[in-house]
Amino acid sequence: MANIDVLDMAGQKVGTVELSDAIFGIEPNTAAMHQMVVNYLANNRQGTQSALTRAEVSGGGRKPWRQKGTGHARQGSTRAPQWTHGGIVFAPKPRSYRFTVNKKVRRLAMKSAFSSKLQDSQIIVVDSLTLDGFKTKTVAAMLKAIGSERKALIVLPEVDVKVINSARNIPGVKTAQVNTLNVYDIMNADKLVIVKDAISKLEEVYA
Description:
By secondary structure, this protein is an alpha/beta fold.
């Protein structure tokens, strides 16, 4: 098992914590992680794009000129795809891009993401996050103290409205609970900031 330092909000070491090899010590499976990232992005697509086919464009009922003798190519309708204001060939229509991924693949992808972050030394464990009120400045100062000023994902053991609302105004910073984590957010973050109490919950869910 890997040991990692536990920091307080001032960036000072206050102890160490042991990380389970079953979650943080596996060989990352890039194929599983890629599949989950594609799944996340596909499920977020609105799928509301729409265009008109030649059957749906108004007009074009009359043949524009006679079949022969004009010197022009034969045409049957001014709403054919080659005409300006004509219909679209294979026009996109509203559809759902959602697809599901096997449960075992989802778990493997999450473990791979955690292990990849630990191998790249991009995991920071914080003893606790306690705020007196809604203080964006306090969260920003904490991130600076622990060396995570850029894109960071803060993993909370449970919903904490003060932390969530204080962090959401900081560009590049996101918060998530153990049960709302996804591979895309983990891999997209430069630093994974995990509250110590969340580690045991991660082990319960993914071990």
